[in-house]
């Protein structure tokens, strides 16, 4: 099975594999779970909530898609990592719901590295201002654990590589400036089915792979 091969390749690179199960039924997730895998990613809250109850409790659920503030409350009690913090209003909401659930919620800063303007994320130029504002607000129920990004959808490997390296730069900047002595800030989530090899090559330590594991998606 492809999954075993990919998982091996990613663990050799010392990275974490998030198996992106969006649009696929719980049976397929269970199959991969039974092979010992625990990290799964979904990009829609509603779909995630429909699946959670039918699957084992020890799955680590990753929210990888754009997150509307009014949906945070559903995730707060159990989500393992939110990859898509891209605005202050969302941080405020995550903090509020984290407090209610009495959980510190782990999040990644989603950074816009692609040239396409369809991709969400914080502009690399705005990251410093964002961090200053976030720190001023002292959100005790949010833990920033790293960065996440998506490269442009292109065959141009050099472009993908340079976008990933830009994300690497942002990670380094934020790490040095705000999290130097904090080992928890260490996640670099980038790389998908088409570009995870380039991602591992440029320093990613968390890749989000969907179609290569579960097959094509029929929307
Ligand atoms: C769907 C998705 C992935 C996985 O995409 P594949 O090309 O199927 O590997 C990764 N990250 C995000 C944010 C996604 O929405």
From TrEMBL:
Homology family: Belongs to the pyridoxal phosphate-binding protein YggS/PROSC family.
Cited InterPro entries: Ala_racemase_N (IPR001608), PLP-binding_barrel (IPR029066), PyrdxlP_homeostasis (IPR011078)
One Pfam short name: Ala_racemase_N
Protein name: Pyridoxal phosphate homeostasis protein
Keywords assigned by UniProt, alphabetized: Pyridoxal phosphate
Phosphoprotein keyword on record: no
Cofactor: pyridoxal 5'-phosphate
Modified residues (N6-(pyridoxal phosphate)lysine): 22
Role description: Pyridoxal 5'-phosphate (PLP)-binding protein, which is involved in PLP homeostasis.
GO molecular function terms listed in the Swiss-Prot or TrEMBL record: pyridoxal phosphate binding
Residue span(s) of domain Alanine racemase N-terminal: 8-217
Keyword flag Amino-acid biosynthesis: no
């Amino acid at each position: 099975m492809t999954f075993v091969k990919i998982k091996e390749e990613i663990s050799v690179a010392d990275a974490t594999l998030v198996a992106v199960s969006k649009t696929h039924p719980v049976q397929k997730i269970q199959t991969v779970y039974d092979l010992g895998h625990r990290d799964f990613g979904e990009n829609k809250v509603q779909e995630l909530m429909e699946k959670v109850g039918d699957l084992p409790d020890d799955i680590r659920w990753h929210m990888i898609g754009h997150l509307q503030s009014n949906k945070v409350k559903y995730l707060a009690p159990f989500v393992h990592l939110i990859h898509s913090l891209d605005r202050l209003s969302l941080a405020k909401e995550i903090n509020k719901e984290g407090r209610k659930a009495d959980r510190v919620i782990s999040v990644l800063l989603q950074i816009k590295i692609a040239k396409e303007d369809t991709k969400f994320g914080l502009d690399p130029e705005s990251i410093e201002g964002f961090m200053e504002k976030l720190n001023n607000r002292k959100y005790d129920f949010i833990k920033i654990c790293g960065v996440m990004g998506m490269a442009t959808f292109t065959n141009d490997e050099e472009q993908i590589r340079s976008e990933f390296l830009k994300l690497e730069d942002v990670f380094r900047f934020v790490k040095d400036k705000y999290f130097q002595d904090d080992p928890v800030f260490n996640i670099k989530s980038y790389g998908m089915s088409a570009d995870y090899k380039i991602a591992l090559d440029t320093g990613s330590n968390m890749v989000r792979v969907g179609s290569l594991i579960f097959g094509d998606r029929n929307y």
